[in-house]
């Protein structure tokens, strides 16, 4: 795995070099250095799970045979396109949320002399993706499908972000707007498509498959992405900050979290009143009151039950798929996230 990771990182260097020398734009030394620094700061710093899973998925679709160097390069290039897409979303997301840190360091726009230039940097990150696809995939029979796929997933993610922003940030803080259906919609569009479906769809296209005939795979991956986000919501409140690498802020940020939606479902009138009065306030006493109510309602127990039933349901859906290779891909995704602690 470390070998695969180092090969993957080598491809990043190749792609970055090509972008910094793209003949469509006459770079000056200053502009080239800016983009170089911006890419290094925002693109390769995460866990790289989305990008690496393109290679893993392709290998499993090829029944586990060793991939050729060419296949590894192309799967890595697609993996990096997903990481670029993620970086683009995060750079702009941090500005919209007025966030302070990302991946253990200050958000890009918070750095001296960056500020709102970060908006344009986000646009640059977005524009790098079709440059990479054109250079390395233009001659492939699935080139148009790849362009369509990235465009569609970006469209879905941006609209998921819109629903999140207008429910969380817009106007009066009104908890009564929050429901399981709303939570699911936000998660499905904002996270699940690009984090779960996109890597597998890239691998399917590389393996010569038609995405239209794999709608069932998409549905299973969206379901998995929803389960992943519910875990995230749970860890934000109950996870160990030492393990997850950050202190959760969903309660004070008034997030449409799975926990608060379940709490609203299970609360009596008095408990609902407590939630309405304390949720979304950046005050330690209010945060503790919400957490205390979560304990009284046994939200942890409710989550463990949800986790167990989701796992069984997903496993059943995966095992009913006709292709053993596709089953292997989906099972590998599920194994990576089931019972995770961070």
Automatic annotation (TrEMBL):
<dbReference type="InterPro" id="IPR033749">
    <property type="entry name" value="Polyprenyl_synt_CS"/>
</dbReference>
<dbReference type="GO" id="GO:0006695">
    <property type="term" value="P:cholesterol biosynthetic process"/>
</dbReference>
<comment type="function">
    <text>Catalyzes the sequential condensation of isopentenyl pyrophosphate with the allylic pyrophosphates, dimethylallyl pyrophosphate, and then with the resultant geranylpyrophosphate to the ultimate product farnesyl pyrophosphate.</text>
</comment>
<keyword id="KW-0444">Lipid biosynthesis</keyword>
<keyword id="KW-0152">Cholesterol biosynthesis</keyword>
<dbReference type="InterPro" id="IPR008949">
    <property type="entry name" value="Isoprenoid_synthase_dom_sf"/>
</dbReference>
<keyword id="KW-0153">Cholesterol metabolism</keyword>
<keyword id="KW-0753">Steroid metabolism</keyword>
<keyword id="KW-0443">Lipid metabolism</keyword>
<dbReference type="GO" id="GO:0005737">
    <property type="term" value="C:cytoplasm"/>
</dbReference>
<keyword id="KW-0479">Metal-binding</keyword>
<keyword id="KW-1207">Sterol metabolism</keyword>
<protein>
    <recommendedName>
        <fullName>Farnesyl diphosphate synthase</fullName>
        <ecNumber>2.5.1.1</ecNumber>
        <ecNumber>2.5.1.10</ecNumber>
    </recommendedName>
</protein>
<dbReference type="Pfam" id="PF00348">
    <property type="entry name" value="polyprenyl_synt"/>
</dbReference>
<keyword id="KW-0808">Transferase</keyword>
<dbReference type="GO" id="GO:0004161">
    <property type="term" value="F:dimethylallyltranstransferase activity"/>
</dbReference>
<keyword id="KW-0414">Isoprene biosynthesis</keyword>
<dbReference type="GO" id="GO:0046872">
    <property type="term" value="F:metal ion binding"/>
</dbReference>
<dbReference type="GO" id="GO:0004337">
    <property type="term" value="F:(2E,6E)-farnesyl diphosphate synthase activity"/>
</dbReference>
<comment type="pathway">
    <text>Isoprenoid biosynthesis; farnesyl diphosphate biosynthesis; farnesyl diphosphate from geranyl diphosphate and isopentenyl diphosphate: step 1/1.</text>
</comment>
<dbReference type="InterPro" id="IPR000092">
    <property type="entry name" value="Polyprenyl_synt"/>
</dbReference>
<keyword id="KW-0756">Sterol biosynthesis</keyword>
<keyword id="KW-0539">Nucleus</keyword>
<dbReference type="GO" id="GO:0045337">
    <property type="term" value="P:farnesyl diphosphate biosynthetic process"/>
</dbReference>
<comment type="similarity">
    <text>Belongs to the FPP/GGPP synthase family.</text>
</comment>
<comment type="pathway">
    <text>Isoprenoid biosynthesis; geranyl diphosphate biosynthesis; geranyl diphosphate from dimethylallyl diphosphate and isopentenyl diphosphate: step 1/1.</text>
</comment>
<dbReference type="InterPro" id="IPR039702">
    <property type="entry name" value="FPS1-like"/>
</dbReference>
<keyword id="KW-0460">Magnesium</keyword>
<dbReference type="GO" id="GO:0005634">
    <property type="term" value="C:nucleus"/>
</dbReference>
<keyword id="KW-0752">Steroid biosynthesis</keyword>
